[in-house]
Amino acid sequence: MPMPPTSPPPEKNEISGKVLNIVRNSLMGESKDPAQVQKLIGSLGLLLQQPGNKLIQFGNSVFLVMVKAPGEVEVHTFSAETPENLIQNYIKGATYLQKIGVKKITTYSDNPAFQKVAKSTGLPVKINQTVKQQGGEMKPVYEYVLEF
Amino acid sequence: MNMDALSMVRHGDVDSLQAFIFENGVQHKTFAETLMDNGTVIPRFPLMDANPNDIEDWLLAHQVEHQAMASALNLSNPVNLMDTNWNDEASFYDWVNTHLSLHQQILSVLGI
Questions:
Q1: Which residue in A18, A116, A125, B93 has its CB near the most CB atoms, within 10 A?
Q2: Which residues of B touch A48 (CB under 8 A)?
Q3: DSSP helix/strand/coil, A129
Q4: At A20, phi and psi to the nearest 5?
Q5: Distance of alpha carbon B39 from alpha carbon B52, whole angstroms
Q6: How far apart are alpha carbons A108 and A128 in whole angstroms?
Q7: Number of H helices, E strands in chain A
Q8: How far apart are CA B54 and CA B68, in angstroms?
Q9: What is the largest CA-CA distance in chain B?
């Protein structure tokens, strides 16, 4: 019996072509400083050489997935999408991670507007306030936790 | 190492640019693997995959690797290889020469 066509796996452990373009545009949108963008892409390149760190791409959104414990991942988002498309890409990303056995997804953002995006996904995301080290200092951030 | 491919690339000539991109990618891979053998990990990008008509992302990835190699080998901070206009013939050849000297410096330090 012929197998149905399947999509190629969205996981990548390198920043190539389109993925680099998305990451770069996302970082440029946040930072605007080319030197800082170069530094951040270098850091991302190093992170991806560690086992357990992968990029997954849906549309024009790229998610850095870092395994923190069995079934638990931390996710960082690079996207230059419209909010509507970003919401759809989050749903696809979460569905994919659940499908491969992830039980808990955590992500962080210091942008209060991200709360609206998280709620718009319709996923049961818990939102907490916490502090996280960013650029050598502790900063208040929102923590988003999705458990399946 | 085929240094000719790095030095004889011609402005506006896609064939020689593709030969350059391939040889450059081979050399970067060798540099990174040599560093890794010595316990130093640097960011890696698929530099052999480049679209000659849209080179900006490639230049960024390439610059990031050069910065990391310069840092790992305690070389003087490399010139910003993104700070160029490849559409301008003179700027392009300046870039090729600067880049060639960077590769020769790295080869020398690594003893390859």
A1: A125
A2: 43
A3: strand
A4: -60, -40
A5: 33
A6: 10
A7: 4, 7
A8: 23
A9: 40
- H/E stretch holding A25 reads helix A17-31
Please tell me what DSSP assigns to residue B79: P
| Per-residue confidence (pLDDT) for residue B30, from 0 to 100 | 96
Alpha helices in chain B (DSSP H): 3-7, 14-37, 56-72, 89-110
pTM of the model: 0.83
- Identify the closest residue of chain A to B82 by CA–CA distance: A34
Mean of the pLDDT values across residues B40-59? 86
Which residues have CB under 8 Å from A142's CB, separation 6+?
Answer: A108, A109, A110, A112, A114, A115, A127, A128, A129, A130
Cβ proximity of B21 and B55 under 8 Å:
no
Chosen for mutation from B60, B65, B84 (greatest number of chain A CBs closer than 10 Å) is B60
Question: How much is the average pLDDT of A8-31?
Answer: 79
Question: Which residues in chain A have their CB less than 8 angstroms from residue B44's CB?
Answer: 14, 45, 49
Take residue B80 and report the two structure tokens written for it.
Answer: 């910003």
Nearest CA among B61, A117, B107, A120 for reference residue A142: A117
Strand partners, A63: A56, A77
Is A65:A73 a contact under the CB 8 Å cutoff?
yes
Of A65, A45, A40, A67, the closest CA to residue A55 belongs to A65
Select the residue of B46, B57, B68 nearest A42 (Cβ to Cβ).
Answer: B68
